[in-house]
Amino acid sequence: MICVLIPRTGVLIAIHYNFTDSLRLLIVGCPFERRFMVMGNVFQAPGMKQSFVEDAHVHTSDAAVIRRRNYFSKDYSPPTVVWKLSAHDVYDPDLYYPIYETNPAKRIYRGQCFLINQRDFLPETGQACRYGTDKDADRVERLFKRLGYHVQRYFNVNQAMMQRLFHEASTLDHSCFDSFVCFILSHGENGMIYATDGPVSVEAVVSCFRGDRCPTLIGKPKLFFLQACRGTRFDEGVSLPLKTDALEEILVTKLPSESDILLAHSTVPGYFAWRNSASGSWFIQELCKILEDDLTGKQAHDILTLLTVVARCVAYQYRSNTGRPDSRSMVQMTDFSSTLTRRMFLTGSPRCP
């Protein structure tokens, strides 16, 4: 058997040559990816015999992952192909998405992180300058580089460019990545996010990464974090009764039909999202702080657990201070919806204290 790793593409091809002077393509895939395609194709040069075609086959055990730094080592043993889940795996509450090794110095990343930072807007949009947003963007960029992502940062993007960026991102080959992350920092309305010259549908952005439009991200987590208003209402909050230690939680969600997508909003539908012009937005700053703490902690936690902590911190620790009676001492409730089918860890593999 001959194994060929095509430079720059990360694609591995294994070709088998047998005594019937026949060539057979056994597997094709990416050694960093957790699935390979088992091929039944047979290639023949003129004059080659055809007797082997009827029983040409490949065992699935031949299609397996080759470790990133050990492509052809003698101690290599094929691990389980993660796309094939046992009945036990399906019901395993601790099952998590594979986490690929990273080496930024060698341009080996966990995935792409798109960061769109909208600060200035055309006058006809009626949207004011978003002072403080650069603080958010800087912190997100630093953090996700530490997390092993290739951060692509964009500033003041118009509608046409935003649509083009997401179309191009969805057509990229994500085979060697374990996930995709997107941050959009902008103004917004319920269901819309603003480009510099007008609104863009959130659904249009997310739908670019559905399985039928982005096949190399099928079965992989796609995370979207949106810092934007979803309306104009202020949340005045409610006072807790003194004799109770319980708080009834109302979760406002609209789950997408696509699988393996997380959509995290800075606020619930219809409400204003707060941002400090000097220090950044409540949601993004608290999200980065929680992820940074988890990255350096003894035990990693999955993203849904961390987003719950973010929601609690924003709800309990932040109050607006605008100097205006109609918007003073307002609060904010973050919101997320998820169709993730496994636990997703951004800060590393699960580990015990």
UniProtKB/TrEMBL annotation:
One of its GO terms (biological process) is apoptotic process. GO terms for cellular component: cytoplasm. Residues 251-348 form the Caspase family p10 domain. Belongs to the peptidase C14A family. It comes from Clonorchis sinensis (Chinese liver fluke). Keywords: Hydrolase, Protease, Thiol protease, Zymogen. The lineage of its organism: Eukaryota, Metazoa, Spiralia, Lophotrochozoa, Platyhelminthes. It holds the Pfam family Peptidase_C14. Residues 109-233 form the Caspase family p20 domain. This is Caspase-3. GO terms for molecular function: cysteine-type endopeptidase activity. InterPro entries: Caspase-like_dom_sf, Caspase_cys_AS, Caspase_his_AS, Pept_C14, Pept_C14_caspase, Pept_C14_p10, Pept_C14_p20, Pept_C14A. The keyword ATP-binding does not apply.
